[in-house]
């Protein structure tokens, strides 16, 4: 599997992005409206099937962007990346999002976030306050077969 200098694979597939929000923050996300986001760990399930695969998409999220395109771009502007997991070649984004949503501590803060092209309730959850939430996510991601990637 070909990787970039950052250690991310160019293969297509799915990714989990763990983001820290330091303090309660209001955030407007296009047609989804304005939401009050509590501080804590947010986890986004996304896919990367375009040119450059996972390296290009995840790299964009890690760098942030001045040109928001997806829901996650708005959230990324107010959060700090903490962790990334990859599933190269995987195509079951909605199934993976549902498994994440099934965690007892998972809460949807913004309904339909990241799910405008499917029927899922959301592809973003909060798992609660750090650092406990990060430990929960790490254990779950490993058990679900995700591969840890550099941040």
Kindly provide the radius of gyration, computed on alpha-carbon positions and rounded to a whole number of angstroms: 14 Å
Q: Largest sheet at a glance?
A: 5 strands, antiparallel
Which structural class matches the secondary elements? alpha+beta
Percent helix range: 25-40%
User: Reading side by side through the largest sheet, how are the strands ordered?
Assistant: 6-4-1-5-7
Count of individual helical segments? 4
Q: For the terminal residues, how far apart are their CA atoms?
A: 19 Å
Series of secondary-structure elements, N-terminal to C-terminal: EEEEHHEHEHE
Q: How large a portion of the residues is in β-strands, by DSSP E?
A: 25-35%
Number of strands: 7
Number of domains: 1
The low-pLDDT segments are: none
Description:
The strands form two sheets. This protein has a five-stranded antiparallel β-sheet. The chain has a two-stranded antiparallel sheet with strand order 2-3. It has 151 residues and is of the alpha+beta class. It has four helices and seven strands, in the order ββββααβαβαβ. The protein has one domain (13-149). The longest helix is centred in the last third of the chain and has 12 residues, at 132-143. The two termini are 19 Å apart.
